[in-house]
Amino acid sequence: MAWAKALTAGLLFTMMFLAPSILAADPDPLQDFCVADLDSEISVNGYPCVPTSEAGDDFLFSSRLATAGNTSTPNGSAVTRLDVRGFPGTNTQGISMNRVDFAPGGTNPPHVHPRASEIGIVTRGELLVGIVIGSFESGQRLYSKVLRARETFLIPRGLMHFQFNVGAEEASMFVSFNSQKPGIDFVPLTLFGSNPPIPTPVLTKALRVDASVVELLKSNFASGSYFNPKTVE
């Protein structure tokens, strides 16, 4: 269906180019482009520029998001990042993108982006998208909806959110951030996979569970298997 493809392309264009200009989070650039020198030892709120003569001709283009990721992971999902580290041409532009692919039943676990707002579009399948909004004083409310291909969602900066594939088929989404390096903090990994670990008595009090439960959860996240693909037998 040509109209559906055209609509999807139009929404992606809006995500990539219009949203960052409206919701800018990073400082405005002082030059047309500044291709990141990722090997530099200097990093002050970004990366220094490589000399223009060494930037080449491809810094404005990338095929990084064209291929689906390997969803054989403990979460049943794969995140392909297109930030400054994978697309140095975005340096100083205040924009980045991710592609997330989901196996049936796969999830992008509860997480926050501390430095960016996010807008996304589901391109395949059915995804439950959830955002928790509120405060200690007003209480926490979960906003959630099952989205299908060509439907969009917004995640305000710093709010916890997740996606879960509720369909029987694989699903995919593309998201855009108003920062070249939005950052990401996964809630389970933050609580149970930090190094050094959060003391168990702190977590037993905070979560109101026995120490054995905390130790079990820590063992699940301490091995580095949170994102690693499953071993194929």
Instruction: List how many beta strands DSSP finds.
Output: 10
Shape: globular
What is the helix fraction of residues, given as a range?
10-25%
With helices defined by DSSP (H or I, 4 residues minimum), what is the helix count? 4
Q: N-to-C SSE series?
A: HEEEEEEEEEEHHH
Structural class: alpha+beta
Cα gyration radius (Å): 19 Å
Major beta-sheet overview: 5 strands, antiparallel
Distance between the termini: 40 Å
Q: Provide the low-confidence segments as ranges.
A: 229-233
Task: Describe this entry's structure for a reader.
With 233 residues, the protein is an alpha+beta fold. 20% of the residues lie in helices and 27% in strands. It has 4 helices and 10 strands; from the N terminus they run αββββββββββααα. The strands form 2 sheets. A 5-stranded antiparallel beta sheet has the order 1-2-9-4-7. Strands 6-5-8-3-10 form a 5-stranded antiparallel beta sheet. A hairpin with a 3-residue loop joins β5 (126-135) and β6 (139-148). It starts with a helix and ends in a 12-residue tail after the last helix. Residues 229-233 have low confidence and may be disordered.
What's the helix and strand layout?
Elements: H1 2-22, E1 77-82, E2 96-102, E3 107-112, E4 118-124, E5 126-135, E6 139-148, E7 152-155, E8 161-165, E9 171-177, E10 185-186, H2 187-192, H3 200-207, H4 211-221
Helix pairs in contact: 3-4
